[in-house]
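User: Structure please.
Assistant: Input sequence and predicted structure:
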Amino acid sequence: MKLRQKIIIFATVPLILALCIIAYAVYHHATELAKAQQEVIRQTYLASKEMELRSYVMLARHSIAHIYESGRKDAAAMDDAKAILARLDYGSDGYFFVYDLEGKLLVHPRRPHLIGLNRWDYKDLNGFPTIQQLISRARQGGGFVTYSTEKPSTRKPAVKLTHVIPLSDWGWVLGSGIYLDDVDEVLTNVEAQVWSNNFDTMRWIGVIAFLGVIVVIASGLVLNIRERRAAQAEERARVAGELHDDICQRLISARLQTETGIIQLTGMPEQFTPAQSTFERMAAELNNILGDIRKIAHDLYPGTIGSGPGLTTSLRQLAHDMENIAASVEFTAGGDTDGLSGSVNKVLYRVAQEALKNVMKHAAASQASMRLEGGKHRVTLTIRDNGTGFDAGRIDSDPRFGMGLRNMKKRLGEVGGHLQINSTSSGTTVIATIPLSLLHYFLPRLP
């Protein structure tokens, strides 16, 4: 397994495990909090229902108080009280009922057909002895009883909370009930909301985990690319240094020795003339080889163009290295070229390198000049020569012509710049312009 893959795995696996642990903890605490919240809601809701129900029963008690507290126990008085209670209701399912202590139903406005029947043995949907419990609670002074029964308005089973009080003088049990299906509905909505919130939380954690893994992988790839580029740059610098400091120096020594031999052969008899010509050709060839090696060295490692101030120095060195016996190259600089990004510097250096190479190979020029001009909004590099020129139109029309110039245009296009070429029989001018913005100052400084 490659090192970068190991780094990515060792970085992503702990991240994913940590996020899974966080997700479980968040889910667990959210669930426990939801249960606690539901219990609080249930207790609060039941307390409010009990208070409401107790108030209803007390109102019913007060509505017949003038009869009950009169001391009368005759059937007429009880019938008047029954009639008042039968007329009292609240809402579609709110009514009052009366049982005697033997379980006989005396008042029930919703089910009048059951009045007069003994319901002592009646049990709810779950087998709970409802009437017995109501009477038992009334004998204890009153209280609440919860059971399951059919809700009149919906004809569906529902839990009912009932409050009863005793009317001891008449042997009655007076009560009323409230259905609790709305409580269950509220708790169901709360539970659904909690599950929805948990799902959204898990989804966001998943998104964060995915983005985190992507960032880790991308960072690993970027680091790998940067390390590879750094290694390549280091190797190229090493090779360039070897060429410049070793090979070039040995070639210079050989050229000097050859030139010394030429000087020594000067004035010698005519039979040494061929030898002198051979040495002169050797000196010229050594000079050409030296120039080519210097160009290769600069192609491998172009000076200090990674930083702003190094561009001027690198271009001046390039101009010096590109000079030969046939042509001179002059370099000048003006304006502010400090602080440019490494990518802009590198593009300008490569453009200058390609342009001067064309001058030396194809232009047959005796003079060339190169000027770097930095401004507030743009940086411009201009290369001029007094050579024979060429047909600039062939760059676009002939794919076999001007490959180097097309590469120059492509390089400039990558940083938003453009290339202008003017060529006549008296010389050629190449102008590379790169507009400057904050983006160009903060572009990555590539090696």
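Confidence is low (pLDDT under 50) at residues 439-447.
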